[in-house]
Amino acid sequence: MTTMTIPNTRPAKMLPPVQVAPAITIGTLTRVELRKLVNTRANRWLIGIALVGTGAAVALWFTLLDLFQGDVTWLDPLFLVSSPLSVLLPVLAVLTFTQEWGQRTSLTTFALEPRRGRVIGAKLLALGAVTVLGAVVFLAASTIAAVLTGPLTDKVVVWSGNLVPLGSAVILLAIAMASGAGFGMFVMNSPAAIALYFIIPVATASASTFPGVIGQVGQWLSGDTWGLILTPMTTTQWGQAGTAFALWVALPLALGIWRSFRVEAK
């Protein structure tokens, strides 16, 4: 009778535990999106032109002082010096969303963070930070223009007064940034989105000046009442502001978010 010899067997080794990478925080995503805003040549040129335009607007302010009768307030230059940033920063908002698809970086972005809602939220937070920074810049430019007005001219600068012009300028910039983001998300093409963003306000503002029915409809579409939000407004004006906001800000944002979740990243 033969005896079977059982070979020596080693106990099975446990596999090392799988290490799961920590989730990317919304703060990290926002910092990444802020870095993207200055990573491309087009964006850097856009920001540079906006800042140079703000400086040029400060210089232009001194050539327009003869139009003011009597004293000037420190916020009188605000509308002029805020114009370059108010026009160009919303284009940056458009590019923030269209460049992902135009430069085909969306596949990389959504591979690193598949949850598209977080990416969209981070982009909107980054644009919010840019809006605040833009408001600080044009407020500083208005203050510098007011400070130089006294020594360079015979005008007396009044440093008191209501802050309605400042609040209106910030509100208009925020609305413009949100509208630019909405058009960028929905159209997903830089030239087309920028064209629509500029053409629609001009067309609706022009229609509001027409007599008759066209002018009445244009007043509900133009958004001219957005700058009056901090002043006493009639019920009609509130309705016009709300209708324009729903059409040109809320609707593009809603459609843009819906499309961003459905379009294929490639």
TrEMBL record:
UniProt key word Ribonucleoprotein: no
Q: Which residues cross the membrane?
A: 45-65, 77-97, 124-148, 168-187, 194-218, 238-258
Sorted UniProt keywords: Membrane, Transmembrane, Transmembrane helix
State what protein this is by name: ABC-2 family transporter protein
**Native species of this protein?**
Tessaracoccus bendigoensis DSM 12906
